[in-house]
Write a structure and sequence with these properties.
Methionyl-tRNA Fmet Formyltransferase, Chain A, domain 2, elongated, six-stranded antiparallel β-sheet
Length: 312
């Protein structure tokens, strides 16, 4: 088949490698996002998928601002794709585009749909305390992540998984499942199952303030959010309280203990123990503002934190 691939972030990179390795198919072009300002200097830089695609010269790379540009539609018709493959493209794909390919478009989504439609499904699944996640191959539809399901595969969420580790596994497992879906198309054996909208749940794009630790939450819930909200937005608390200075938390362990939510109740051992709305947390890896990530024990050595202090 002649394939046009659409993607932008890291989730799409293993899928592009998989497509480039498929001798039975032809990757006619890659559609990705234009360069955007990044970093402190706000210099234009390519997204991860475009950077990877540039290594496969002379692969055609298209970076339209909008998918309904007449010039893009004309170029896509000239490419004569059999199917569009979409992985984390990050933009709306109109029906006028999808109709160009006889087989339409298929999408890789990193959740067990219909649960966790929308943005950041990997991070939110961990933050919500799920023990199982997965990847889904589905048809692209007008409604977000609501197309018929072609294939699904579950994967466990381990207790030490973070948004980073689970995202990486979802990207690799999703690429493999995507290859199996393309095999079904080539053999003419595709079947799809309609999603049950009554079982659908939705997640929105994460914001910086979502990382603020609310100590009134149960300790287990806070720990799940610490694990899930990596690499963005990363959970943080204010210390000293009222100072406007923040400490990011990358790893924490559940502990027994009681106190006022946010109260430091122990400074012995591998990191400070902080009371939550239910039980307590030991902070094992933190990053004070302007410093590198350090162990909780190192943080205690360099900061005058004492029992009874209330964290913001």
């Amino acid at each position: 088949m002649r394939i046009v691939f659409m993607g932008s972030d890291e989730l799409a990179c293993p899928s592009l490698r998989m497509l480039m390795a498929r001798a039975q198919d032809e990757l006619a072009a890659v559609i990705t996002q234009p360069d955007r300002p990044k970093g402190r200097r706000r210099q234009p830089a390519p997204c991860p998928l475009k950077a990877l695609a540039g290594q496969y010269a002379p692969l055609r790379i298209l970076t339209p601002e909008k998918m309904n540009e007449p010039a893009l539609l004309e170029e896509l018709r000239a490419l004569r794709p059999d199917i569009f493959v979409v992985v984390a493209y990050g933009g709306y794909i109109p029906q006028a585009v999808l109709k160009i390919a006889p087989k339409g478009g298929i999408n890789l989504h990193p959740s067990l749909l219909p649960k966790y439609r929308g943005a950041a499904p990997v991070q939110q699944a961990i933050a919500c305390g799920e023990t199982v996640s997965g990847v889904t191959i589905l048809y692209v539809a007008e409604e977000l992540d609501a197309g018929d399901i072609i294939l699904q595969e579950a994967m466990p969420i381990e207790d030490e998984d973070t948004g980073v580790t689970l995202f990486a596994r979802a990207a690799e497992q999703g690429a493999s499942l995507l290859g199996r879906a393309l095999d079904l198309f080539e053999r003419g054996e595709v079947s799809a199952v309609r999603q049950n909208p009554d079982q659908a749940t939705y997640v929105t794009r994460l914001k910086k303030e979502d990382g603020r630790i609310v100590w009134e939450m149960p300790a287990r819930q806070i720990r799940n959010r610490i694990r899930g909200f990596q690499p963005w937005p990363v959970c943080y608390f204010e210390w000293p309280k009222g100072s406007g200075l923040f400490v990011k938390v990358f790893k924490a362990a559940l502990e027994q203990g009681t106190g006022q939510p946010g109260e430091v109740i122990d400074i012995q051992g591998e990191g400070p123990v902080v009371a939550a709305g239910e039980s307590a947390l030991r902070l094992l890896e933190v990053q004070p503002g302007g410093r590198s990530v350090m162990s909780g024990k190192s943080f205690l050595c360099g900061h005058a934190m004492r029992p009874g202090v209330i964290l913001g």
